[in-house]
Amino acid sequence: MEKKDTLDSLLDPNYKRIIDECAREKKNLEISNGNSTHAAYLIKALFEKAKKEIYIYTGSLSDDVFGHQELIDVAVAFLKREGSSLKIAYQENCDKDTIKSRKFVQRILNNDLIKNRLEVWDVSSAFKDITNHFTLMDETAYRFETDHAKKRAIANFGDFASAKTLKGSFAKIIGNEKSQPISLT
Fold it and tell me: What is the pTM of this model?
């Protein structure tokens, strides 16, 4: 039987140590990110440390990033916490069936205890050209794509001012008159 690689086994130990230390200590240190494994581990760390809210502005919720079982497990554990919520805004035009086909979303929707803690919006009518995707945790930490084409991003677990700005941006994105909520149930 072939052993499946884990996120931990795919990362450089020093890179993982930096992320874990910054997340634990809420350090204001910019962490660069240049591939889908880095992104998955950073987003996993955001879910692990989140107290109440996670916001995701995404193109398609790619399985290359969000399909890692460890990330999905941590996201489900987060959503099982009382008062937690996950809000996702899709920048690319995605139909309901495509969204529901993503491993990440499937696992949430298959759990009756947490599926109502997921809110999804189609924001493609107003924001199709804005490709700086981001994941935000509790207005305190984030991962922000600086170059979508090159898959480059930065993350920070202690830059509260930028995190607050991203929360305001997310509110404007889903609050736009052209943004539409999507019912997945």
Answer: 0.94
